[in-house]
């Protein structure tokens, strides 16, 4: 099976972020047919400024746009800041959405999020879905991976230990792979590691 290149973006810039840890957990699942590349440079992007959005934008913008263009799909993990998406993540989407190539139009995107609170970034994910829909991205609808009380689902060194969250990540990657391969016109059969009894 041809490998899918997935670019993973964390909405948190914090070094010990649970959302970045969620992306590492997804990559560690190693479902087969995936190459998940985690971006660590959203904090280097300047705030979106139309005066800078020229034929030669700042270097971090050029790099991000190139990585999105090369990726078959995106995997985004977002925390919740004031009931919405973090500024760094919204800024990255703003820069990507204004690229002349229409980078996000039709791009398959899967969303997850973790929070120590009781709602698991559900409001941030709702806002993110609206933003991505407005720029024409193809967002995975189900499953909704909203990891509430995330401090109880990871070890102190940010390793995911919760089997329910692990199962949801499997299903999310499966749904993302289906959408990405449909877009590319490639057949898709879920790897054995994705096949779950009763699911």
UniProtKB/TrEMBL annotation:
One of its GO terms (cellular component) is cytosol. Coiled coil: none annotated. GO terms for molecular function: FMN binding; oxidoreductase activity. Signal peptide: none annotated. Residues 5-147 form the NADPH-dependent FMN reductase-like domain. It comes from the Bacteria. PANTHER family: CHROMATE REDUCTASE, NAD(P)H-DEPENDENT FMN REDUCTASE LOT6. This is NAD(P)H-dependent oxidoreductase. It comes from Nonomuraea deserti.
